[in-house]
Write a structure and sequence with these properties.
The chain is mainly alpha-helical. The protein has three domains: 39 residues, no CATH class; 76 residues, no CATH class; 151 residues, no CATH class. A two-stranded antiparallel ribbon has the order 1-2. The protein has a two-stranded antiparallel sheet with strand order 3-4. A hairpin with a 7-residue loop joins strand 1 and strand 2. Helix 5 crosses helix 6. The N and C termini lie far apart (60 Å). The structure holds heme C (HEC) (6 copies). One heme C binds next to helix 1 and helix 2.
């Protein structure tokens, strides 16, 4: 840390020398750097929180070397994609040196060299590319929805009314939370957007970052108090959803669509059974909120899927 501080010190001195002599640095004041590089925890508290988060520790950034994965899995490729106004499925090159979802992926770090650089990389509404005409518009949460959206919708049944489960990675892909909030992406029942999807001003950011700028990106309990009473029983609600999840999981294993480790079994199945498997993956493995993102849609999908297998 000391070496790094010294390094920054040397750089800061260079900036002082350059001020007034270079067009690049002409407008940058040393005091601007010190708005961030100072003795507060403005940077380090975020680094600490991130060192406990999946964004900061996960290994899937390595997938960013492939063009079809880069836009969401490499922070550097994401910044380029956002600047070019592209969607993840339009990225043409992989990132040879992929980075995690770090400060530079989400913020404009070292663009103006002022605190304006905390601005988010993008907050434009996100057209979900797996569907026709579905847009997520959750304010600052749009940043997250660029990556946290499904890659696939379920295929239509073939002439015999069957749907093929083509691989053990079959499903919408991890991170379909924006679609879940909007009530799309499932297979066994139609849905509507939840009030969490339409009524929470900054969407994901309201609930997962919150007023104190938490950077673990886990749901922040205090953020619920804006609308729910202190004794509101989220756990009780999630337990009820978990019971439906367990019931559906057992039925899928009994029918041979899901193996004991929770992976889909490759094969061709009647559409209603494949749809039940799809919804299990969508809800349990990929959305991960146990119903909170869209209470009514999650319950409807689980109940319809269970009915289809009984
Ligand atoms: C808006 C806040 C902000 C301002 C203003 C700012 N920085 Fe930074 N700086 C950061 C952040 C955030 C990081 C990355 C920290 C991390 O990766 O964990 C960083 C990293 C650095 C590093 C470490 C190497 C690197 O690039 O990651 C140096 C050196 C540095 N800044 C120098 C400067 C200088 C010189 C200025 C002024 C000309 C400046 N910074 C202005 C926020 C800022
Ligand atoms: C550049 C793409 C990208 C952006 C932007 C992004 N994420 Fe992520 N997120 C990911 C990836 C990739 C992972 C999985 C990391 C891994 O496992 O290696 C992840 C993981 C997570 C996890 C952990 C999930 C788990 O299974 O434990 C949460 C929670 C999360 N993100 C929330 C958010 C929120 C909230 C935002 C917006 C503030 C956001 N993400 C913005 C790509 C992104
Ligand atoms: C639209 C953005 C997007 C694209 C494109 C994408 N992913 Fe992901 N991926 C995510 C997000 C977001 C997560 C984390 C979701 C969560 O944990 O809730 C994730 C998670 C994963 C995980 C699980 C991470 C773990 O360690 O458990 C794997 C594996 C993965 N992706 C592989 C890939 C591969 C391979 C590709 C390219 C063929 C790809 N992804 C393309 C957004 C994307
Ligand atoms: C996954 C995206 C993401 C990553 C990674 C991320 N941030 Fe943030 N950060 C956010 C969001 C979203 C907010 C809330 C912005 C708002 O409310 O305007 C935020 C807010 C902040 C703020 C408060 C900004 C303000 O205007 O008051 C600071 C400071 C900050 N982040 C620093 C960092 C640093 C330092 C890192 C790296 C160690 C980092 N962030 C990594 C998404 C991210
Ligand atoms: C109304 C508040 C709310 C909104 C809005 C919201 N979430 Fe969540 N999210 C939650 C809660 C609560 C959980 C469940 C946490 C738990 O069970 O521990 C959760 C779970 C998750 C998980 C799974 C975490 C894990 O550990 O596996 C991810 C990833 C996630 N949300 C990302 C997002 C993204 C991305 C958005 C926006 C597209 C979003 N959320 C919008 C409240 C919210
Ligand atoms: C901006 C307001 C708002 C915020 C913030 C918010 N919620 Fe909600 N929540 C609602 C509304 C509105 C409903 C729908 C109530 C109804 O069904 O009539 C709801 C419903 C729910 C339900 C379903 C209850 C049921 O029995 O169907 C759960 C669980 C829930 N919220 C949990 C959370 C959690 C956890 C957080 C914080 C991470 C949160 N909410 C943040 C407004 C909010």
């Amino acid at each position: 840390m000391q070496a790094r501080t010294r390094f920054i010190g040397v750089l800061l001195s260079l900036v002082v020398l350059l001020v007034g002599t270079s067009s690049v640095f002409a407008q940058v004041q040393l005091t601007d750097c010190m708005e961030c590089h100072n003795d507060t925890t403005v940077i380090t508290d975020k680094q600490t929180a991130m060192s406990e988060s999946m964004h900061g520790t996960g290994e899937s950034y390595g997938r960013g070397t492939r063009n079809s994965c880069a836009g969401c899995h490499s922070g550097g490729a994401f910044s380029k994609m956002a600047a070019a106004g592209l969607r993840p499925d339009q990225v043409e090159e992989g990132d040879p040196n992929p980075t995690r979802q770090d400060c530079r992926a989400c913020h404009q770090i070292h663009t103006s060299y002022t605190t304006a650089d905390w601005a988010l990389e993008t907050v434009d509404p996100v057209t979900l590319y797996a569907f026709e005409g579905v847009t997520y518009d959750g304010g600052k949460g749009n940043l997250c929805a660029n990556c946290h959206q499904p890659r696939r919708a379920i295929a239509a049944p073939d002439a015999d009314g069957n749907i093929a489960v083509t691989s053990t990675h079959w499903g919408p892909h991890h991170g379909p939370q924006s679609a879940m909030l909007l009530g799309v992406g499932g297979a066994s029942a139609a849905g509507d957007a939840s009030l969490h999807g339409t009524f929470v001003a900054d969407g994901c950011v309201t609930c997962h970052v919150g007023e104190n700028d938490s950077h673990t990106f886990e749901a922040v309990d205090a953020s619920c108090l804006e609308c729910h009473a202190e004794d509101f029983d989220t756990e009780g609600f999630q337990d009820e959803i978990q019971e439906l999840i367990d019931q559906l999981g057992e039925l899928l294993v009994a029918k041979g669509l899901l193996d004991e480790e929770g992976h889909p079994v490759v094969g061709t199945y009647p559409a209603a059974e494949a749809s039940a498997l799809w919804d299990y993956i969508f809800i349990v493995i990929e959305d991960g909120s146990r119903g909170v993102h869209n209470p009514a849609y999650t319950r409807d999908l689980l109940e319809a899927a269970i009915a289809a297998l009984q």
